[in-house]
Amino acid sequence: MSTASLAADLVRMFRAEGRIVIVGASLAGLRAAEALRDKGFCGPLTLIGDETHEPYDRPPLSKQVLKGWVRADHTKLPRMRDIDAQWRLGVAATGLDRVNKQVLLATGDAVPYDRLLIATGVRARPWFNPAEAALQGVFTVRTCDDAARLQAALRAGPKRVLVVGSGFVGSEMASVCCELGLPVTVAERGGGPLVGPLGGVIGDIAARMQRDAGVDLRTGVSVEALDGDAGGHVRRARLSDGTTLDVDVVVASLGSIRNVEWLAGAGLAAGFWGVGCDAGCRAFDINGVVTDNVFVAGDVARQPHVLYEYQFISMEHWDNAVCGAQVAANNMINLETERRPHLPLPSFWSGQFGVNIKGVGVCSFGDEIVFTQGSPEDYRFAAAYGHRGRIVGAVTFNHGKWLPYYAAMIERSAPFPPPPPGYDRASDPAPMPARFPDPRVPTEMPDVVLTGHDPTSRGAEFHWAREPA
């Protein structure tokens, strides 16, 4: 038998044998399951999810659903193919026993696996005071149930909506309120909207855009307390500047928490920023040693990126979940020579206040920004971010057709400032400080985060060679 034939037989055996378990039945989990079947895996497949719903699309929740264009329960993700899987929905994973290769469930069951994919994603950061969070009219938006409840509250015509936090989701919700004709106040303890992901220069533009649309934007202000009435409904918000707002709907848009608690004691590189993995989506253990049968994909994954000094990068982006799931699936059922890397170039989009915002790269890695095209005054422009003389990110307002142009330059580490485009040049092409906030200052976390080089805290014992006495 030839070497090639032997390798082919090994691959067929690898794909046919063993049980694969996917923890996380959302976008990454579903697309990974489909990719596994597409690539020939024919063994037992189990998907575990803590929500009772089948996988659904989350981006419409803060846009079309809140506007009333689409019902929250009509956002189910399309199925690309039949996956012939056992679904365990409405039950949370509570632990991972790597020694016996079992996922432990809240029901007390243990699900055995031969290969495991962790795709548990993130959840919304709750309001900091549990008693206030329990008031009627206080919302977070992450699940379709969250969106359905908030949409009903907005449809009832509140006198004033308070949005706490002005990242992408918070800004989108403020935009929805404006479109629905609802008075809305945005409280942002940072310097302005979108400052975390895009910096202060763009934050100034986003602030002007919100105020032009009628938003009562309060920057450098936090919400210290929420007061309810005798019936348990929120009625007032006390702000750090000493003012009090009469509100009857409060939306907390405070960022997200990665769902890693169930991995406590499993010996994986899991922590605040997610689960560390290599470029092939294989999870690291707490000592930085790559595992053979545990993989990670989606919002909960963090992996080193060649374009950003090999720092670990965490991404809460739709395309990262899809592409990462496909790479993880491929590598779970292929031998070493057929495995491939997940090297995402982050990209994002947001629709707010009539403006289509699109970006590519890790803008927050840059320390300078330059407007390259269009007019910031008209909310129609392209801008590039630079770090140590090379372009690392770009953002466009109503100018998205140029994004591939900037993406290509980021991929090849082109010089910064980038060469001027052929036409529609900006009137002031001089670079300036991008004004990203100090990461130690509390504000909403950006959707893409560079988290340094260590997978997690070390648990190893170190030894060194010493000359004999």
UniProtKB/TrEMBL annotation:
Domain (FAD/NAD(P)-binding) ranges: 19-321
Feature: compositional bias, Pro residues: 430-440
Any Pfam family hit: Reductase_C
Annotated segments matching region Disordered: 418-469
Kinase keyword on record: no
Limits of the Reductase C-terminal domain: 348-417
Cofactor: FAD
Top-level taxon of the source organism: Bacteria
Biased composition (Basic and acidic residues): 460-469
Keyword list, A-Z: FAD, Flavoprotein, Oxidoreductase
Keyword presence, Protein transport: no
InterPro entries: FAD-oxidoreductase/Apoptosis (IPR050446), FAD/NAD-bd_sf (IPR036188), FAD/NAD-binding_dom (IPR023753), FAD/NAD-linked_Rdtase_dimer_sf (IPR016156), Reductase_C (IPR028202)
The name this protein goes by in its record: FAD-dependent oxidoreductase
Organism: Nocardia tengchongensis
